[in-house]
Structure formats: structure tokens, C-alpha cells
Amino acid sequence: MDPCRLPQSRNWRIRWLSTKINTALNIDLVMPVACILIKGKVWQTSNRNTFVLNLVVSYLFGSLTFGNQGMMMAGFTSFQGCLAFLHFMQWSFMTSWMSLLWLMLDQYLCIEWPLKYPIWMTPTAITALIAGAWGLPAINFCLFKWVIGGEHICDDIVKADISSFGIYTVMTLAGIPLPLVLLLNLRIIYIAKRRANEVFVIQVASLSGSKLNGGQESRVSRRTFAQIWKSILTANIIIGSTFVSVLPYTVVTSQFVANPPTELSQLQKLGNNFSVGMILMGACFTLNPLIFSARLPQVKKFYTTIWRKLVSR
Question: Going by C-beta distance under 8 Å and a sequence separation of 6 or more, which residues neighbour residue 80?
Fold first, then answer.
């Protein structure tokens, strides 16, 4: 039996239909976003908004992979389709991680070395980082294809090295990037809190004996750092939701190691658990841009601009 062809029960058909609806919805979101990014040359803007928008686009791009997942769950797929799903899923996930890492690095440089920040983060450097976020995952494609033999997952699952595949997937999607982003995020939180107090004290001290409204200047300082805290909090939400979405991979991997898939019933059970994990990951991909839009004004403005341009045509 083809491991990609699983029973077409009513439950599977409902999941397949919901996945197709989700994919169609995300196609409607991704196309105008991509067009405006290309037409408006947003990546040449020297500020952290660029990395936020790239992270949003990568999450929307990741949502598109679940059309293939829905077909695989329904049993209508091929060997090439199964491989395409695995590669696109890992590609979009790693691009999202790298975009989040660039965002954290950008904020770290901005608050740690504010005078050198404009020198380092030039439009050329920003373009190179964004290109790297989309290009470097190609290395993962080569490792997956020729080192761990990931093709056997879609060809002959009994011959596949499930243990290596599971460990490799968990480490590349969460095990390696999660500690890096968390450590950098903790450093940013510490510096932002310290610098917020320093700026507040300096502004109040500089107003002594002047005719300026000290209270108003203090409120401006608080709003500035409140925006930094919003961005940091949003990053924590993204990290948490992404980590939760990867947990089903760990469960599936442990079951594969404990119970080699030598029987059809075990294979069907593992396939069902894997599909549940992928649906959770699809929800993560879909909801995270909405979280960004709700919490960060620049993302909300970005979506508003897209909507206005579409309506005006």
C-alpha cells in the first residue's frame, strides 16, 4: 500500500476540505502581498518593518503547503507531490525561523549600538539578509535528499530511516533555532529595560530649568519603548506557538522508534497522528500573521494598504 494513500473516511474528508479552504484563503492573501512587496520595493527600507513583513510573508507562504497536505490525507497524491509537500513545509518553516532571527538581530543592534546601527543595516545588508532567509534553506533540501534519504518517506516508508528523519526534522525546525532566538530575545529584553530607564532619566534631567513640557516628553519616551516591548512580546507569542506546533513531530518520532511500521494498522495510526500535527502547524502558520497584524501597527497598516489598493482597482 502506498504510504501516502490513507483511508478516505468521513473524518479525513472533512480535514481535506478544511485544508483546501484554508489554502484558497491564503492564496488570496499571498498574491497581493507578494505583488506589493515587489512593486513597492519594501525590502529596501532600512528599518525593522522589513523583517516583520518578510516574516509575515513567509508564514503566509507556509500556509500554502497545506493544499498538498489535504490531497495527501485524502489519498490523491503522487510521489512527487508528497516530496513537494515535505520540502515546501520545511522551507517555509526555516524561512520563518530565519526571518524571526534577523528581526531579533536587527532589534539587538538597534538598542545595543544605536550610533553604528545605520552604518551596519544598510539597504544592501537588509536585502542580503532577506535573500539569505529564502535561499539558505536550500542547504536543508540537499541534506534531506542526499544525506538522510528523506525520499523514502514518500517512496517506501518501511525502508526509510524514520529515527534519523524525525530527529533531523525536530532539530532543524525547533531544536537548533529555538535556543538561538530565545537567548537573543532575553538579551534584548534586558537591554531594552535598562535603556528605557536610562532614556527616561536623561530626558527628565535635561528638562530641568527649561520651559518644555517634561510630562509630554516623558510620555513620548514611554510610547517609544512600549512599541519595542510590543514587538518583543509578539516575538515571544510566535516562538511559543511555533514550538507547540512542532511538538506532534516529537510524538510521531517516538512512536516510530518504539513501534516500527511493519503493520498497516500502525502505519495508519501514525499517519493520522502526523496529519493532526500538520493541521496544528497549519493553524500556526495562518494565525501568526493575524497576531502580528493585531499587535504591530506597521503590519496592520501594511494589510490596510493592500486592501485599499485591491479595492481601488
Answer: none
